[in-house]
Amino acid sequence: MLALVLVATQRGAESPLAMNDRGAESPAPHSGVARAFQARDQNTTLTAVEGLKVGHHTLAERPTGCTVILVDGDATGGVAQMGGAPGTRETDLLHPLNMVDKVNAIVLSGGSAFGLDAASGAVRWLDEHNIGWPTASGRVPIVPAAILFDLGVGGNSRVRPTADCGYKAAAAASITPVEEGSIGAGAGATVGKLGGQAEHDGYPAGSRKPMKAGVGSSSIALSNGLVVAALVAVNAVGDIVDPATGKIVAGVLNPDGTFADARKILRTGQTIRRPRPAENTTIGVVATNARLTKDQANRMALMANDGCARAIVPSHTLGDGDTIFALATGRWSGDVDVTTIGALAAEAMADAIVRAATRATSVAGITAARDLKK
């Protein structure tokens, strides 16, 4: 871990009214501006970055949904795509060689390629609010997006996020601490699939099983006012390993409920079925209140992938579509050191990935970390 003084790390509650990790009840919210400032002060999730809002929408018919990150105004955007099977929209636009350098929203969605339709709903919401890149014919919303594969979880695979899902998530977006777990884009997310195990009830007798993951978020604030944060939906082939301890948090399970440990599976040379392309993925966003150029935002996204490698074993496989976006809101006027910001982004990403596993709840008979015997 970095030898930096961290004023705040992600240890918050799932909602403004939840119990915090020390067992004390969080203060009741106030109204108006006072409530907004209180939310920022107590927030250790992505929305601790001034200028960002987050909203989820989860479908009732099957565990799937989408998550929308809205920018108040606009932000410089970047992206780093490290997996072998991505499903994305508007990522070429974020390349430093291309003209548009501002982003109005990011959409993360379940539903595989079908889920990219959720971005159209976020575009519609932004259009209704006259938000977007200015052109002679009106404002055009800039909304990059990425998806994960959850079609095999919890029932009818034809139930997937649509444009309506993206619209509702955008409409629900707020600056309050991000709700984590089996929600939004992480509603159907699973991990521990080394060998390509099925993701539904009715596993063959004696087969290994995956575990539930979801959405996690974390932020780091320095005493000089710099804030760097991450939000991630984890649907990886690999196991989730806490970098602080080296212990598995969630991953492939043996028939007796113990961890098979992807690291041991790989080192023993066992014959495993290769992960199927497009059926796994970790998608997320790192953000800062610093003012970055487009080049620097892309570097931040690239460095944030180090956090994926620290907390997911293995990561960036041929069967993963790992995609990390970066946003810089420019609300902080301090001196920018992109090396520090990128390194902190990796720290926040690793913390968020662990939380995506620890905050998840079981769905469709898939075990979550909180269900395991301690």
Poorly predicted runs of 5 or more residues: 1-39, 196-203
SSE order: HEEEEHEEEHEEEEEEHEHEEH
Class based on secondary structure composition and strand pairing = alpha+beta
Q: Using the coordinates above, name the CATH class.
A: Alpha Beta
Instruction: Compute the average pLDDT.
Output: 84
CATH topology: L-amino peptidase D-ALA esterase/amidase
Note the gap between the termini: 26 Å
CATH architecture: 4-Layer Sandwich
The description of the largest β-sheet is: 9 strands, mixed
Tally of structural domains: 1
Tally the beta strands: 16
Please report the number of helical segments.
6
Rounded to an integer in angstroms, the radius of gyration calculated over CA atoms is 19 Å
Could you walk me through the main structural features you see in this protein, from its secondary elements to its overall organization?
21% of the residues lie in helices and 23% in strands. The protein is α+β, with helices and mostly antiparallel strands and 374 residues long. It has one domain (43-367): L-amino peptidase D-ALA esterase/amidase (4-Layer Sandwich), CATH 3.60.70.12. Strands 1, 2, 3, 4, 7, 10, 11, 14 and 16 form a nine-stranded mixed beta sheet that branches. A three-stranded antiparallel beta sheet has the order 13-12-15. A two-stranded antiparallel ribbon has the order 5-6. A hairpin with a 6-residue loop joins strand 12 and strand 13. Helix 2 (118-128) packs across helix 3 (163-172) and helix 5 crosses helix 6. The longest helix is centred in the C-terminal third of the chain and has 21 residues, at 338-358. The chain starts with 31 loop residues before the first helix and ends in a 16-residue tail after the last helix. Mean pLDDT is 84; it is low at 1-39 and 196-203.
